[in-house]
Design brief:
Layout: H1 2-20, E1 38-45, E2 57-58, E3 61-70, E4 79-85, E5 88-93, E6 97-102, E7 108-116, E8 132-138, E9 141-146, E10 151-156, E11 161-166, E12 180-185, E13 191-195, E14 205-210, E15 221-226, E16 233-239, E17 245-253, E18 257-265, E19 275-276, E20 279-284, E21 293-301, E22 304-311, E23 322-329
Parallel strand pairs: 15-19
Antiparallel strand pairs: 1-3, 1-7, 2-3, 3-23, 4-5, 5-6, 6-7, 8-9, 9-10, 10-11, 12-13, 13-14, 14-15, 16-17, 17-18, 18-20, 21-22, 22-23
């Protein structure tokens, strides 16, 4: 009986994880009726720790603000990448939508703009066609990694005009729904692209270091590995002003539910075959407010380094939440 219970529990866990992580991509085969880009969303404050609402410290982070974001517009949700600049949040969903909204200042309704990424892999009629999982923004351009196509596309901002795209050979072999999950542009113009899997058996996951623009087919790439905390996988990455690298890592279990760990590492001396790993600076476990944390952005305010973290509700607002956190990074 005990063995049967364990097997049933594992099967249930796999089904739940598949549903919640969006690996069962819902189809959108029929043309969708056009909707106006401007709509509304609601911001509700959330504490860092529901068991201790006055808590402000989380490892090396200081909690500044937390919000639950929601909208009656069915297009909203699935946040998988984010860029914050000059008080405006630009987020991508894993179904190919672009969300733009001001950083919340108070509870209540606020404007939300929703557009489609104008061009991308496939026809765009299925969620899996536009499964945008990572974004890097620099110099008036945005690079977007599409997980199911193992591809990186480049766009000119602010209009998201398509410029270039490539499916790098170095990404070949990554299984469906386990392709590029996180991406960061280094200060010298090189790119790190993290694959979600598969695990090599030693606890590491795929990592590529591109010598330049990954949206150009001719760009060379070194094959590396990334070692996340045990039981976790990378979901996003961002460069700090001092050149160090932040990596957001996620874990899911039927009984443990969502957990996340933020690590910090040094990407300066990477070579072919190297393993990148970092030290843990914050853990979203226990009574800390957490969900499926997938998006990370870094800004500066009054001399402080600010971290923005957002979650993907998998278009399942009854069971999950779209959260937006603001932290200050300590020394």
């Amino acid at each position: 009986r005990k063995r049967a219970f364990m097997v049933a529990g594992r099967i249930l866990g796999l089904l739940a994880a598949g549903f919640l992580l969006g690996t069962f991509a819902w189809p959108v085969d029929r043309p969708q009726p056009p909707r106006p880009p401007m709509t509304r969303m609601t911001a509700e404050p959330v504490p860092l720790d529901a068991g201790d609402p006055q808590r402000r410290r989380l490892g090396a982070l200081t909690f500044l603000e937390g919000w639950r974001l929601s909208s009656r517009d069915v297009r909203f949700g699935g946040v998988s990448a984010m860029h914050v600049e000059r008080g405006i949040v630009t987020a991508l969903s894993d179904s190919g939508s672009i969300f733009r909204f001001p950083v919340p200042r108070r509870a209540g309704a606020m404007p939300l703009r929703i557009d489609r990424i104008p061009r991308g892999p496939g026809t765009g009629r299925r969620k899996s066609d536009r499964d945008a999982e990572a974004m890097a923004v620099a110099g008036g351009r945005a690079w977007v990694a599409y997980e199911n196509w193992n591809a990186v596309w480049r766009y000119r901002l602010p209009g998201w005009r398509f410029e270039a795209a490539a499916a790098p050979a170095a990404l070949d072999g990554l299984p469906f729904a386990r392709g590029p999950e996180a991406m960061a542009r280094l200060a010298d113009g090189r790119f790190l692209v993290f694959g979600e899997g598969p695990d090599a058996g030693d606890g590491t996951t795929p990592l590529l270091l591109f010598a330049g623009d990954p949206a150009r087919a001719a760009t060379r790439a070194l094959r590396l590995r990334y070692r996340p905390p045990p039981g976790y996988r990378p979901t996003d990455a961002a460069l700090l002003p001092d050149g160090r690298l932040l990596v957001l890592n996620r874990s899911f279990g039927v009984f443990s539910w969502w957990r996340a760990v933020l690590t910090i590492g040094n990407p300066r001396r990477l070579r072919a075959g190297a393993v990148l790993e970092g030290r843990e600076i914050a853990s979203f476990t226990g009574s800390v407010t957490v969900d499926n944390l997938e998006a990370l952005s870094v800004t500066r305010e009054s001399g402080r380094t600010i971290l923005w973290i957002a979650s993907d509700d998998n278009f399942n607002p009854l069971m999950q939440r779209t959260l937006l956190f603001k932290f200050a990074l300590g020394r």
